[in-house]
Amino acid sequence: VSPFRKDEPLSRRMRHTLLAGLAAFGFGLGMAQALAQDEVEAVAQGEAVEETAAEDHGTVHYPLKKPEMMDWSFAGVFGTYDRGQLQRGFQVYREVCASCHGLKYVAFRTLADADGPGFTAAQVAALAAEYQIADGPNTDGDMFERPGRPSDRFPSPFPNDQAAAVANGGAVPPDLSLIAKARSAPRGPLNTVLDFFTQYQEAGPDYIHALLTGYEEEPPHGIVVPDGVYYNPYFLGGPALAMPPPLSDGVVTYADGSPETIDQYSKDVSAFLMWSAEPHLMARKRLGFSVIVFLLVFATLMYLTKRRVWAAVAH
Ligand code: HEC
Questions:
Q1: How many CA atoms lie within 13 A of 101 on its CB side?
Q2: Contact 256, 158 (CB under 8 A)
Q3: 265/270 Cα distance (integer angstroms)
Q4: Closest ligand 1 atom to the C-alpha of 168?
């Protein structure tokens, strides 16, 4: 006899209450998100943008505009990185972004990955040797600098955050190694569910691309942009950020004849930063596909086995 038997009606009631509570909580959460989303959309359409220091209508949600969904080669179940694009993106990082942003989790040797930019070992060694890496201490107890090796990681442009802030009007340029995974604009409750089925995982590069191409000379009426920051309606943290527009048409010369435009540079560097944040994306997608195929075959076999085992039992 179960010792819990006499409690059963109570526990069942508790279970129902709990379920009802959970349902109400979920509903409330959904509503709250939907409301927040409406506000973001209203703001995106420029309705609630009218906000001055004197006349504050309440909270404005950022970003003011949503990133456009780009057509990435690495999207979807069979997505793969475009090697040429990663190489161009790396060139943009090196020639433009690297003066302010580090890439401290990326080792030079990974630039030779077959699923990545795919540079040759010789190219990577030559590239690494162009950097000076702090090493030591030597036998005298002193730190010293030596040319980089493929096993080293990218040195950061500033010795510490304080130095970075002083050089950038008080804002620290974040390390970009993982930025494509660390940033994404909110997608709203409906998309959050749909994204699961469509396997949308490119919110990070979509955001970076939108940010780099989204600077506007003149902020809309009512938005006051202080000196030293730049209006950008795609920025997650506010109406303006401390990064001056880093790109302009023609600043990087491509060897493969791709267009030398802000839009192309932004796409390429966003793709490169997606790779730096997720270097094993292609292996993950390959394995994921094989696992699903395996599970389908396995499930079929199990079903047939079950029929065989129970065939003799009347039902
Ligand atoms: C002159 C220095 C400078 C250059 C060059 C520069 N950035 Fe920045 N970047 C900054 C600063 C400073 C911030 C921090 C802005 C803030 O928080 O207000 C920043 C922030 C960012 C952010 C984070 C935005 C967020 O949501 O927090 C990204 C992404 C970014 N930069 C990408 C790039 C890329 C890609 C390039 C090259 C095409 C680049 N930056 C070139 C200074 C720079």
A1: 21
A2: no
A3: 8
A4: 12
Asked, as a colleague might, if the bond just before 279 is cis with ω within 30 of 0, I would say: no
Residue nearest to atom 40 of ligand 1 (CA): 97
* Atom 14 (ligand 1) nearest CA: 173
Residue 220: CB partners within 8 Å, gap ≥ 6?
46, 49
CA–CA separation, 72 and 282 (whole Å) = 13
Residue nearest (by alpha carbon) to ligand 1 atom 39? 97
Q: pLDDT for 246-274, tens place per residue?
A: 999 999 999 999 999 999 999 999 999 99
pLDDT above 70: percentage of residues in the chain = 87
Amino acid at site 112: A
Whole-angstrom CA distances from 308 to 111, 296, 298 are 53, 19, 15
Distance from residue 22's CA to the centre of ligand 1 (Å): 42
How many residues does this entry show for the chain?
Answer: 315
Residue nearest to atom 5 of ligand 1 (CA): 97
CA gap 273, 176 in Å, rounded:
7
In sequence order, the 6+-apart residues with CB closer than 8 A to the CB of 289 are 77, 78
**In this predicted model, what pLDDT tens digit does every residue of 114-140 receive, in sequence order?**
999 999 999 999 999 999 999 999 999
Rg (CA), the chain: 26
Q: How far is the CA of 211 from the centre of ligand 1 (A)?
A: 9
Q: 262 and 208 in contact (C-beta within 8 Å)?
A: no
Q: How remote is the CA of residue 172 from the centroid of ligand 1, in Å?
A: 9
Ligand 1 pocket at CB < 6 A: 92, 96-97, 99-101, 168, 171, 173-174, 179, 183, 208, 211-212, 235-237, 241-244, 246-247, 269
- Which atom of ligand 1 approaches the CA of 269 most closely? 35
- What is the Å distance from ligand 1's center to 141 Cα? 37
Residue with tokens 């030591």: 136
**CA-based nearest residue to 203, from 26, 60, 107, 69:** 69
